[in-house]
Design brief:
There is one protein chain. The protein is elongated and about 65 Å long. It has eight helices and seven strands. Strands 5-2-3-6-7 form a five-stranded mixed β-sheet, sandwiched between helices. A two-stranded antiparallel ribbon has the order 1-4. About 40% of the residues lie in helices and about 20% in strands. The termini are far apart. The longest helix is centred in the last third of the chain and has 16 residues, at about 135-150. With about 210 residues, it is of the alpha+beta class.
């Protein structure tokens, strides 16, 4: 029981930790510069900690966004349109949560509407909301699909992501020209082979080209 109590106390302690200040973040960057073997006070690096913190604020803005909010405004006056809607080639930049290295690629998103559709820019914003966090590609693919499925409640959702991982191309095995493809199919996209094939044809990765 004492062991469990200590664990609970530790969890509570972590939960109330104050937020990291911008000054603390800049000091952390200075430490990494020194650890790398350079002098953070030399002219070329003097403003680097502030620049890095500003860049991080942009790259990881997804932590301050609920991507589902983008999908809450929908349109129902679509003359009964109920065929597949696909937004393909959504370019994105994310960062690997294992090495903090860039993940650069394209996302393809499709869904089968019921009685409402969403503005296509909102689908791109959902992708942005999840990619601007530390990620693994498999998780990001599932998050995008489930968000669309839970908010729009369509008959089906398909998400395919094709991306290059700099943690593999610039370090480790150093294999360039390699991309990773992941997919998440829900509803009719998962259960109906013809629907899935139509989606893959739309995004031109059905294997015939």
């Amino acid at each position: 029981m004492k062991k469990a109590s200590r664990k609970t106390a530790a969890s509570k302690s972590r939960a109330v930790e104050p937020p990291v200040t911008e000054e603390q973040a800049q000091l952390a960057v200075r430490t990494l510069l020194r650890w790398s073997g350079d002098d953070p006070d030399r002219e070329g690096l003097r403003d680097t900690p502030a620049r890095v913190v500003r860049a991080y604020r942009d790259w990881f803005s997804g932590y301050h966004i609920d991507p589902a909010d983008y999908l809450r405004r929908t349109f129902e006056e679509v003359e009964g349109y109920d065929e597949m809607i696909v937004l393909r080639g959504i370019e994105f930049e994310s960062h690997c949560e294992h090495h903090m290295a860039p993940i650069i690629g394209r996302a393809h998103v499709g869904y089968l509407p019921t009685n409402k559709v969403v503005g296509i820019s909102k689908l791109a914003r959902v992708v942005d909301g999840y990619c601007r966090r530390f990620q693994v590609q498999e998780k990001m693919t599932a998050q995008i699909a489930r968000c669309i499925d839970e908010v729009l409640k369509p008959r089906g959702v398909g998400v395919v992501i094709d991306a290059s991982h700099q943690c593999m191309t610039t370090r480790g095995v150093h294999k360039r020209g390699v991309s990773m493809v992941t997919s998440k199919m829900l509803g009719d996209f998962r259960d109906d082979a013809r629907t899935r094939a139509e989606f893959l044809r739309f995004i031109e990765i059905d294997g015939s080209t």
